[in-house]
Amino acid sequence: MTTPDMLTAAWNVPGFKWSREKAAHLLNRTGFCAPPEAVEALLRLSPQAAVAKVVDYEAEPAYVYPLEFDAYSHPVFGSPRRRRAFFQRFTPAERRKTLTRFFQASFEKMQEMRFWWLHRMIHTPRPLEEKLTLFWHGLFVSGFDMVHNAYHMYMQNNLFRTHAAGNIKTLTWQMAIDPAMLAYLNNNQNRKAHPNENFARELMELFTMGIGNYTEEDVRQSARAWTGWTFFDDRAVFLARQHDFGEKTFLGRTGRFNGRDILDIIFEQPATPKHFATKLAIYFGNDEPPPQVISGLADCLKQNAWELKPTLKTLFSSQWFYSDAVVNNKVKSPAELIAGTLKLLGTSAPNPGAFLLSMELMGQMLFEAPNVGGWPTGKEWIDTGTLMARYNMPALLVTGRYAARMPPRLRRILGEKCLREFESPINPCAELAARQIANTRDAVDFYLSRLIPHGIPADRRLDLIRFLNRNGSANARPLSAVGEEKFMLLSMLHLMLAEPRYQLC
């Protein structure tokens, strides 16, 4: 680094130049890709204004994509008494059948919701809003496998979106009494006679402080403070008769604490800002952020009373963020890879189920993290199984075929009829003609600048031109507009999307 402080604004460091590569990096990390037109828009601004435009995303219109729930995917009874009365009118066999129908409707809605969210990632004019929603979903984890209620997962997803760049402490409280979280970590079963410690433990270990910063006795005392919370339908409810109003000693403090008091104490601990700062630095920076970056971001969080935007602006302005240790040095998550690819190629998924399954095969199923610790990050996304899925996804998109043996589940989703009649939604001939690109060299350069703005080795670029020429020459050759040329252009896109550097941002 050129100065001692890694969080110094990059434009205050001698030699810094606001460039296409740096604008693309800002867009890649704060969204899902860097479309050339968005890069050009940022280049017309100063770097300070570019960061402000990205972070203060409320200036852009909210993306509206409604999701409708019916009486089976979102049953509302009003109260536990009315729920019991509803089911008591059925015979045992009818009751089982009705419950099965409720669960099946919720399961099907959950699959629809996954594509709904992927669609938002692709089309939103506020990429950071969705990127942060994904961040919070991976930190404050709940999963449909335990919640069994699609509408509650939908509510939680919108909760994260509403508070995405807002106050972290406020979001943590709202998350604690969110019906999906209450069900996922069993705090709706936390009663004064039988305290349940699941939520109290994960609140400190995974959500706010990190292991080693509390004792088992702190877990037990916190669990007592959180007793009494449950939910009726979609409403969090506090049952005073089930709350332990007795005295608790938690993290060295003693009093008749409730859940809010516990959060106040947690957010006074020095480990808490460091925990959130570490998570943010890894998510937006690299896998091993320097201690100086973590401590600086932690101080920023404390100084701004847990408001997130000042910390984000500090991070996205810093010389560390634009350093070689960070730029083009992070493996894209499956969500980033799929949403970004579809956006860059100007299309939606031709078969939503297939692309959601591709994401799952890469290791990331939305609304279904592998455990309460969330998804992996960075290099942990890559292993022999997920790497093959990463290379097969672009093959499916541009050719309609998997490059390797198709998994049986994917074959069932696509269906034999769909496989025979699949037509790629990508039409490179029309796009190149509209841009008056008429030769193979310019075609390669156009798609490289769009898909891999940080570039590939010169010899790989020449290999792509030779491939498109089909004659071993790296010279420019005129393009035709139809027939075999389309197949070659699609195959060239497949090769680009399989480039190792395309897996990085």
Any overview of this molecule?
There is one protein chain. Strands 1-2 form a two-stranded antiparallel ribbon. Strands 3-4 form a two-stranded antiparallel sheet. Among the domains are: 94 residues, no CATH class; 74 residues, no CATH class; 76 residues, no CATH class. Helix 18 runs antiparallel to helix 19. The longest helix is centred in the first third of the chain and has 32 residues. It has 505 residues and is an all-alpha fold. The protein is 54% helix and 3% strand. The chain contains 25 helices and four strands.
List the helices and strands and how they pair.
Layout: H1 20-30, H2 36-43, H3 47-55, H4 80-88, H5 92-123, H6 127-139, H7 144-147, H8 150-162, H9 168-176, H10 179-184, H11 198-208, H12 216-225, E1 229-232, E2 235-238, E3 248-250, E4 253-255, H13 259-266, H14 271-284, H15 291-303, H16 308-317, H17 334-344, H18 352-361, H19 384-399, H20 408-414, H21 416-421, H22 428-434, H23 440-451, H24 458-469, H25 484-497
Antiparallel strand pairs: 1-2, 3-4
Helix pairs in contact: 1-2, 1-3, 3-16, 5-8, 5-17, 6-8, 11-12, 14-15, 15-16, 18-19, 18-20, 19-25, 23-24, 23-25
